[in-house]
Amino acid sequence: MSKLKIFTKGFFAENAVFVMLLGLCPTLGTTTSALNGLGMGLATTFVLVMSNVAVSLVKNLIPDKVRIPAFIVIIATFVTIVELSMQAYLPDLYAVLGLFIPLIVVNCIILGRAEAFASKNNALDSAIDGLGMGLGFAMALTMLGSIREILGSGSIFNMKIYQGDGALVFVLAPGAFIVLGYLIALVTKLTKKA
Amino acid sequence: MASKTKSTFVNMVVVLFVISALASTALAFVYQATKEPIAKAKLEIKKKAIAQVVPEFDTSYNPIENMFKIALAEGDSLECYPTKKGGDFSGYAIKANTNKGFAGEFWIMVGFTPDGKIYNTAVLEHHETPGLGDKMQKSKSNWSEQFTNLDVPNIKDIDGDGILIEVKKDQGTVDAITAATISSRAFCDACERAYTAFKKIKK
Q1: Which residue in chain A is spatially nearest to B13 when comparing CA positions?
Q2: What is the complex's ipTM, to 2 decimals?
Q3: CB distance from A173 to chain B under 8 Å?
Q4: Pairwise CA distance, residues A79 & A77, whole Å
Q5: Is residue B32 part of a domain?
Q6: Structural domain tally of chain B?
């Protein structure tokens, strides 16, 4: 597989949210606004790249039967590093995203990529895969967050675009399911080979 | 390419041990390195909050160094940061918590002028629902403006339960946040706790 293809498959062909339906808990929970979705997506991307590289470097040292706990420890370590550094050096961003950072550990995209890709490929390919998958995830979360923010709060990236509060249901969990359902249908229609 | 490590008992134990040891060492380093900046960032947030919630004060009298604790009940006390202007106490910033939040405990800073009015409020840390309960933050909506200059001693206690700061649903005077009555109630509860503490200073 070419490097470009490894990178681009995360956006549509194998998009974590729209196609593989992985990591739906943070997807539904954090996308109340475009900014929250984008921040969560980027934090996930960072952890995904780091853990993919680390896993691909040690893949031959780890016995098969204990690979899952080993991967989880690696992932949790990177997440904690992200959380502590963000709290120390970017307190403003931490105030917005702090609630969601620990959730990255249990995001199955990260373990999924470690298991399905990084444990079978070299470090460079794994980094590219992590970056593509992560940015694809960030893109999906931002789209979902934007639509929910426009419909639910009448604004986008905290900028008011029409008067009033919008339909509250889109900020709540049911709205997340409704919007995600329509988005998946749309993406499937657009990308389906005739 | 090196061959894969076999899944023997010894191999598994050794590998897991080494990975955990490396991970904890790395985290210990990061923790050490970020400990001070984190404490600094938190202090900065506190300082900013104090400056927001009380009237302008003389910086020669440091409210953080002169912090004292007010006990509300056994094992339950609030931190109070007094400020002075021209030699007299000009305000009291009280860090109040409540455990009635929708997602557990949260902390706000409530500032009082010496006559018992709330000068202003600021949210320090919370876990309320993004998009709903977090509207109590100044950056998200103007909801908390109704607490600015709230004349607490002159609020009429309609239902006679001794609680002055309440949402309208509880016969109080505060408009609750739409769809976040629990968060609004908790915010009122924290203010009420701060006011209870404030009355104890005055005694």
Answers
A1: A66
A2: 0.73
A3: no
A4: 5
A5: no
A6: 1
Residue B99 at interface with chain A, using a CB cutoff of 8 Å: no
Q: Does B178 have pLDDT greater than 90? A: no
What is the residue type of B97? N
CB spacing of B12 vs A165 below 8 angstroms: no
Distances (CA, A) of A147 to A36, A141, A180, B179: 12, 10, 10, 20
To which residue do tokens 């700061």 refer?
A: B165
Taking the CA of residue B46 as centre, how many other CA atoms within 13 Å lie in the half-sphere pointing to its CB? 18
Amino acid B139: pLDDT: 78
- Tell me the two tokens of residue A11: 């956006």
Arithmetic mean of pLDDT, A133-139: 93
Q: Provide the residue range defining the domain that includes B160.
A: 52-202
Q: In this predicted structure, what is the pLDDT of residue B191? A: 93
- Cβ separation of A63 and B12 shorter than 8 Å? yes
Whether B142 is covered by a domain: the verdict is yes
Residue whose entry in the numeric block shows the structure tokens 């109704």 = B146
Mutate to test the interface with A, among B5, B11, B105 (most CBs of A within 10 A): B5
- Identify which of A64, A80, A165 has the shortest CB distance to residue B27: A80
Do the Cβ atoms of B15 and A99 come within 8 Å?
A: no
Position B1 pLDDT exceeds 60: no
pLDDT at B76: 86
pLDDT, one tens digit per residue, over A45-88 is 999 999 999 999 988 888 888 888 999 999 999 999 988 888 88
